[in-house]
Amino acid sequence: MAADGGMHAEHGPRFAERAPDALNNPQLRRNFRRAMDGLMAKRAAQFPDPAYWAELRERGAAVKARALAKLPDLLERLESRLTANGVQVHWAETTEEANAIVLGILQQAGARTVIKGKSMVSEEMHLNAHLERHGIEAVESDLGEYIIQLAGETPSHIVMPCIHKNKDEISDLFAEKIPGLERTGDVDELTAAARRVLRERFANADAGISGVNFAVAETGTLVLIENEGNGRLSTTLPPLHIAVTGIEKVVEYLDDIPPLLALLPRSATGQPITTYVNMISGPRKAGEKDGPTAVHLVLLDAGRSRVYQDVELADTLRCIRCAACMNHCPVYTRVGGHTYNAIYPGPIGKILTPQLQGLDAAGDQPHASTLCNACAEVCPVKIPIPDLLVRLRREAVRPTETPATHLPPLYSTVVKDGGAERSWTESLVWAGWRLVYTRPLLYRMVTRALAWGGNWVPADAPLMRDWTKARAKPRFKPRTLHDLARERGYLNEVPK
Ligand code: SF4
């Protein structure tokens, strides 16, 4: 875990080193292309009226912005409301603390088996591995999560974790991992096989663990949406329910939920509403026939407070994890989620991961973008992702000892490991460029010399090689645009 308690740095090659493998994998690219095209079409069909879409996302953004503006107060209100409802609330500053809290609750209850609903925060915590190390078995119950757990993989998408796999790959996996199952390409049979295994797990689990989509401060209600019923079973069948969530999931009023529910499933899967909307307000009461007898909520910070301190970057915390940004991202749709080597892939990951992990571990991520703005156009809570990417690129190369004097006073320099990507070679090149660019005569002399000399540099020279691998070497013309413009009388005022 990161020393300051942010999520674990995912080790291994960086994005640029991993991308060629994904780009050269036609099966992976076909899987993603097909899936993303389908999701984009379904989402577009849900928002046929641009005026309605604009109004709805304005409301969604306003709800989340208001909640963030009052975040410390709302978290306290949430805690007191939940406590009054009988839910035990725990605060975790780091993922390590969150793991320890969950483990402690399970051990106190004597739990040996856990059934889990989908939760990206639990991925952030690497919770399953932590529990396994302490002799507790956690089984994922979301079908996609169950598949990747069987495969020993991590999610490649925050809503559809096994979107990188096709039916044949899943058939092979099930035949190998589910005892007694013959290989079948029939999707219904595959689903039924998973259901048989999971039903038995639901019935016998000592505890259920889930994530949270929204936590309502006004009423102390945990809102959890899903399509498979596994979330409801995980949170109602076992005698103990533990919910884990980031502190940014709090909203103020119950009335804030409808606009968010109108945006989230539509943006995520192109559904007007999910099959299940669970609202959990406490443990089973006397006389009730079902539900857990104990409910806990673990509120995780893990770097979010640091993000919150910066007025510009705090917009990141508005995210409702719909994944529309990744479904529409020309980079994500070509390389898939594993290429990012991070818990949160795609555009949201490119702004969230460097802030949670730090720019030393993930300073390359903001560069894995064309800044085409597709993500910002579809984001239901209007997060200006490209602006934040540019800001993080700047933070990554800023001299660490220099305060952000170019930014308004409210901006802070809280990004972890700011300046981590700064290289002295690059700094020297830019210092040289500034020297030349601010002296017109020197600029003209240098650019003419470079143009002349550049044509003599071979295409496979070390500095050229990366560029010419996929492109022709540019040829400088002997005469500049200014020369031509002047000759035609357009720029008579420009000095020679
Ligand atoms: S950044 Fe916006 S589009 Fe992306 S997951 Fe979050 S809410 Fe959805």
TrEMBL record:
GO molecular function, one term: metal ion binding
Biased composition regions of type Basic and acidic residues, renumbered to the chain: 7-20
Keywords attached to this entry: 4Fe-4S, Electron transport, Iron, Iron-sulfur, Metal-binding, Repeat, Transport
Protein origin, superkingdom: Bacteria
Pfam families in UniProt: Fer4_8, LUD_dom, LutB_C
Swiss-Prot/TrEMBL GO biological process terms: lactate metabolic process
Domain named 4Fe-4S ferredoxin-type: residues: 309-339
NCBIfam families: LutB/LldF family L-lactate oxidation iron-sulfur protein
Protein name as catalogued: L-lactate dehydrogenase complex protein LldF
Species the sequence originates in: Nitrospirillum amazonense
Lineage: Bacteria, Pseudomonadati, Pseudomonadota, Alphaproteobacteria, Rhodospirillales
